[in-house]
Design a protein that fits this description.
Shape: globular
Number of strands: 10
CATH architecture: Roll
Oligomer: single chain
Largest sheet: 4 strands, antiparallel
CATH topology: C8orf32 fold
Helix content: 25-40%
Radius of gyration: 16 Å
Distance between the termini: 22 Å
């Protein structure tokens, strides 16, 4: 069953605004967005170029066993890695810089299948496709064995990193937030190392 996504705001303009965390107006964000999309001939192509770049070129902090925790889009770009939430901040900043409305979505997932009662939040994006008048979720977490997320530009079908398993208490939250959730931002800004953040990840919205 397809999840019915619910925008937090009825104003598309609110999904284009920069902020302290989604610093789409940062010079480095602007330069990268322009560079990556210079040859794009459609909005869908812009989305795919930016999405693939963040997914593949910015590592997930845990995958490379990095220590620092990034939060703002420009921090993620500088460090070259981030947790799922932080990668979503960067992708949103790049897309918004190109005039593409982008929001934030979350899932509640089992952190480790060996501990099925231990849940954590997972962060991803939703992008507005004006031609279809439809929001589509994108997960730039980063692919690895067992995880294969894509943006299917042809049919716009969602292919997320983690399809939820309701029998394990996993949840797709339907709200598309205009800015990263305060619980997520607080966690990223309060815990400076990956190990510390993992021990204090939000478990639900």
């Amino acid at each position: 069953m397809t999840l019915l996504l619910t925008p937090e705001s009825a104003s598309i303009a609110n999904y284009l605004m920069p902020s302290a965390v989604v610093d789409a107006d940062h010079p480095a964000i602007d330069a990268l967005a322009r560079s990556l999309t210079a040859a794009a001939t459609s909005t869908v192509e812009q989305i795919k170029l930016l999405y693939d770049w963040v997914r593949d070129r910015i590592a997930h902090t845990c995958d490379i066993q990095a220590v620092p925790v990034s939060c703002t889009a420009s921090e993620v770009l500088t460090q070259g890695h981030g947790f799922c939430f932080a990668k979503a901040h960067l992708l949103a900043a790049l897309l918004r810089r190109c005039g593409i409305p982008t929001g934030f979505c979350y899932q509640r997932l089992v952190f480790d299948d060996a501990q099925p009662n231990h849940h954590t939040l997972h962060g991803l994006n939703a992008v507005y496709l004006a031609g279809l008048d439809r929001w589509v979720r994108l997960d730039a977490r980063g692919n690895k064995p067992g995880v294969q997320a894509e943006f299917n530009g042809d049919d716009h079908r969602e292919q997320l990193a983690f399809p939820i398993r309701p029998h394990l208490g996993e949840v797709d939250y339907s709200t598309i937030y205009t800015q990263p959730h305060p619980l997520v931002v607080a966690a990223l800004q309060t815990h400076p190392t990956a190990a510390d953040l993992i021990a204090h990840l939000p478990t639900a919205l």
